[in-house]
């Protein structure tokens, strides 16, 4: 196929009715498109076959994971230019598709693509292995299925996550004093901010739901002298956290369990932190989640719920998770608007005392993780697989742009199980806990 890039550019521009926003370099080394723009590298013609058989995000994701597609140039600029064609969303009642994605499914385009691929003699491409969660058993958000979904995302290897996250081993939005701060300082400041919002004091009992690699419980026990229980569904996370706790000499004050929040039947806690965990709960289970956390708190106890939020849409029942994220990153995960989260916490009995939006902080965090991954690329690919490393790079870079463009946000919601006659125990000036940072 002579001048494949030129033919593809012409075809794309006919479909879009506008110039292609990126340059194309095809497998035959031909190039076409705006000079100086980031280049979409189509390494193999089977990338087109993937798009033909799975139009939209999933076909693109499979081509990216397999290494059939790549970006030459600034990844963020390329994704930003392509966002309107791939990830753009609207308030349409059906799952929307931007112009190029809709066109890929039209019969006339499919016929043209089949003809081109037949000339190229490309076979039907296999689904990239391992990186895609193939087996989904039973209804959503059962104990078993949630554990499988968490394992898919988090049991990738602690060494891999250590390369991406850095020494803090915190996999949630950091809290930045300035863009020039270090990731490690910003993560420590986030953990300390949560401790101060929870009003932790010596001897109190903290539950950390979705404790990850144990960073929150370690900080709370070390800096605030509390006793802590951390729960996770990931065996790898639990083993890593227990080792860190033992090395810190805090095994007598911190317990790590592989346990679902629905299985906790302990005596009530003084405080609960849930940091980046509620996104896994699912809309059908969120009321149960809120009820469970309310029941686990003592009267006067505080909950800090740190959660990614999406923008509201006109038809909430038509909301769907992006195929790329659902298949490759967070199986069965769901985002909710912050208003719904606040409402459901209130319906469970909580008094919501404070909501802090920190979406710009997550963009900075994600860019730092991408930098870490790119600096350690060969080792990261060796520790997992090249495909899995490519998934994380694309996911984190695209997510950074989504936070920067206000497509999604992240919020810390402080809620209290306020006792009778109504003293919440929170300070009159709540923003005082945001002034300065605790250095221990």
TrEMBL record:
Residues 160-419 form the Polyketide synthase-like methyltransferase domain. The keyword Membrane does not apply. Pfam families: CMAS (PF02353). One of its GO terms (biological process) is lipid biosynthetic process. It comes from the Bacteria. Belongs to the CFA/CMAS family. This is Cyclopropane-fatty-acyl-phospholipid synthase. It comes from Streptomyces glebosus. The lineage of its organism: Bacteria, Bacillati, Actinomycetota, Actinomycetes, Kitasatosporales.
């Amino acid at each position: 196929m002579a001048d494949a890039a030129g033919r593809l550019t012409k075809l794309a521009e006919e479909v879009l009715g506008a110039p292609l926003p990126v340059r194309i370099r095809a497998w035959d080394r031909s190039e076409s498109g705006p000079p100086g723009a980031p280049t979409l590298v189509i390494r193999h013609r089977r990338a087109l076959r993937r798009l033909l058989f799975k139009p939209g995000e999933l076909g693109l994701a499979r081509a990216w994971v397999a290494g059939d597609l790549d970006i030459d140039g600034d990844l963020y600029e390329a994704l930003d230019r392509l966002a309107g064609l791939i990830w753009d969303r609207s308030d349409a009642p059906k799952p929307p598709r931007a112009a190029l994605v809709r066109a890929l499914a039209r019969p006339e385009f499919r016929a043209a693509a089949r003809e081109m691929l037949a000339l190229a003699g490309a076979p039907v491409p296999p689904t990239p292995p391992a990186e895609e969660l193939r087996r989904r058993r039973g209804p959503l958000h059962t104990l078993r299925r949630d554990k499988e979904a968490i394992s898919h995302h988090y049991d990738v290897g602690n060494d891999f996550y250590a390369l991406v996250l850095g020494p803090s081993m915190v996999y949630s939005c950091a809290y930045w004093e300035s863009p020039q701060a270090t990731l490690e300082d910003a993560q420590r400041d986030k953990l300390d901010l949560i401790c101060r919002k929870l009003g932790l004091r010596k001897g109190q009992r903290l539950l950390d739901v979705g404790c990850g690699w144990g960073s929150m419980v370690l900080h709370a026990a070390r800096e605030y002298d509390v006793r802590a229980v951390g729960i996770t569904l990931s065996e790898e996370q639990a083993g890593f956290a227990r080792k860190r706790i033992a090395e810190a000499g805090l095994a007598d004050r911190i317990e790590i369990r592989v346990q679902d929040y629905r299985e906790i039947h302990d005596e009530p806690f003084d405080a609960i932190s849930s940091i980046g965990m509620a996104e896994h709960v699912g809309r059908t289970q969120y009321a149960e989640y809120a009820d469970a956390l309310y029941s686990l708190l003592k009267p006067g106890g505080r909950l800090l719920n740190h959660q990614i939020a999406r923008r509201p849409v006109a038809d909430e029942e038509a909301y769907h998770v992006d195929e790329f994220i659902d298949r490759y990153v967070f199986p069965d995960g769901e985002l909710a608007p912050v208003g719904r989260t606040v409402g459901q916490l209130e319906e469970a009995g909580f008094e919501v005392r404070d909501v802090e939006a920190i979406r710009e902080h997550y963009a900075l965090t994600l860019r730092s993780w991408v930098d870490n991954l790119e600096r350690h690329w060969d080792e990261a690919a060796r520790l997992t697989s090249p495909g899995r490393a490519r998934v994380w790079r694309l996911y984190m870079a695209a997510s950074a742009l989504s936070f920067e463009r206000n497509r999604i946000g992240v919020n810390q919601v402080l809620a209290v199980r306020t006792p009778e006659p109504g003293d919440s125990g929170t300070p009159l000036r709540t923003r005082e806990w945001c002034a300065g940072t605790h250095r221990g």
